[in-house]
Amino acid sequence: MLTGSFTRKREMDMQIPTIQISSQMGRIAIEQNDGTLEITQPNAEMHIKQPVADMSIRTTKGHLTIDQTQAWEETNLMSPIRFNKKHAQTGKQKAIEGIQRRAQQGAQLIDIHRNDNVMAQQAVQNGYRTYKTPSLTYIPSPLAVKTHYENGEVEMSVHAQKPIIDVQINKPIMYYRRGHVQILMDQHPNLTIHFA
Q1: In terms of Cα–Cα distance, which of 63, 52, 61 is closest to 155?
Q2: Contacts of 72 (CB under 8 A, 6+ apart)
Q3: Cβ neighbour number for residue 194 with a 10 Å cutoff
Q4: pLDDT at 5 over 50
Q5: What is residue 180's predicted lDDT score, i.e. its pLDDT?
Q6: How far apart are the C-alpha atoms of 123 and 128, rounded to whole Å?
Q7: Residue 130 in contact with residue 17, Cβ under 8 Å?
Q8: Based on the number of CB atoms within 10 Å of its own CB, is 180 exposed (0-12), middle (13-18) or buried (19 or more)?
Q9: What whole-number distance in Å separates Cα of residue 94 and Cα of residue 100?
Q10: Which of 40, 70, 95, 130 is the most buried (most CB within 10 A)?
Q11: How far apart, in Å, are the Cα atoms of 84 and each of 53, 88, 194?
């Protein structure tokens, strides 16, 4: 029974044709070109102007006062009015001194009984003049010239001016070239069936 079954199957195999199948897969090729970006930045335009500062200077002059009145008086060089006043004062002083001297001598004569030699003494006083020691009177004393100085003042006013700055910004110049991707069939798919 087994032999008969095997023979039948063999007979069936011999009747089926042979199929040959060959296939070729498809292949894709991709070409890619990168994009490029070019950027140019122009320089900014700047203008700076500096106005001159306003400055004002105000000065008050110093004042020097020189008083030579005492020096002129000590050298007898003075105005007629001042000369007359000075000698009038000197004459008045001498007159007072003379009155005092005569009053004193009169009082001494009243008491002549106490001193019998009073008249001889007064005769010697009134008969001889006292001589002054000669000296240079036309040279003024060291501090005869008076000076007074008032300082001057300096006032400064400065007003600074701010700089004027004008800036013009230039935008960047950009150039972009797009990239692209190209897809190609490098190998087409193929299926071949062959019956033998």
Answers
A1: 61
A2: 78
A3: 9
A4: no
A5: 87
A6: 8
A7: no
A8: exposed
A9: 10
A10: 70
A11: 63, 6, 167
83-114 pLDDT, tens per residue?
Answer: 788 888 888 998 998 898 888 888 888 777 77
First-to-final CA distance of the chain: 33
Residue 184: partners with Cβ closer than 8 Å, 6 or more residues away: 28, 29, 30, 31
DSSP SS3 for 10:
helix
- Residue the block writes with tokens 């008050």: 60
DSSP letter string, 20-73: EEEEE--EEEEEEE--EEEEE-PPPEEEEE-PPPEEEEEEE--EEEEE-HHHHH
User: What's the token pair of residue 17?
Assistant: 């044709």
- The CA distances from residue 150 to 58, 153, 156, in Å, are 17, 10, 20
Tell me which amino acid residue 91 is: G
Which range among 32-46, 68-82, 138-152 has the greatest average pLDDT?
32-46
The Cα 130–Cα 179 span in angstroms is 136
One-letter amino acid at 58 equals R
Q: Would you give the DSSP letter of residue 16?
A: S
Contact by Cβ (8 Å): 118, 112: yes
